[in-house]
Automatic annotation (TrEMBL):
<dbReference type="Pfam" id="PF01206">
    <property type="entry name" value="TusA"/>
</dbReference>
<dbReference type="InterPro" id="IPR036868">
    <property type="entry name" value="TusA-like_sf"/>
</dbReference>
<feature type="domain" description="UPF0033">
    <location>
        <begin position="6"/>
        <end position="30"/>
    </location>
</feature>
<comment type="similarity">
    <text>Belongs to the sulfur carrier protein TusA family.</text>
</comment>
<protein>
    <submittedName>
        <fullName>Sulfurtransferase TusA family protein</fullName>
    </submittedName>
</protein>
<dbReference type="InterPro" id="IPR001455">
    <property type="entry name" value="TusA-like"/>
</dbReference>
<dbReference type="GO" id="GO:0016740">
    <property type="term" value="F:transferase activity"/>
</dbReference>
<keyword id="KW-0808">Transferase</keyword>
Length: 75
């Protein structure tokens, strides 16, 4: 299992979601994508996308206006 960081700070939606989707295609089953973002919409859009494709997802507020979203690639 690898943890891959994706810096999406300063990007407005839909770009954090698009970058996360593209990066997930490169990962192996069991890998975790950790997205750091300051886009409020990404905290809704990325988890919704992850749920729709069956990937576990967690959101953690890491500061004033920043979040860490982790998505685990499953089978």
């Amino acid at each position: 299992m690898a943890v891959i960081d994706l810096d999406a700070l300063g990007l407005a939606c839909p770009f954090p979601l698009i970058k996360a989707q593209k990066k997930m295609q490169e990962l192996k089953v069991g890998d975790v994508l950790r997205v750091v973002t300051d886009c409020v919409s990404a905290t809704e859009n990325i988890p919704l996308w992850a749920k729709n494709v069956g990937y576990p997802c967690e959101i953690k507020k890491t500061g004033s206006g920043t979040w860490e979203i982790t998505v685990t690639k499953t089978g």
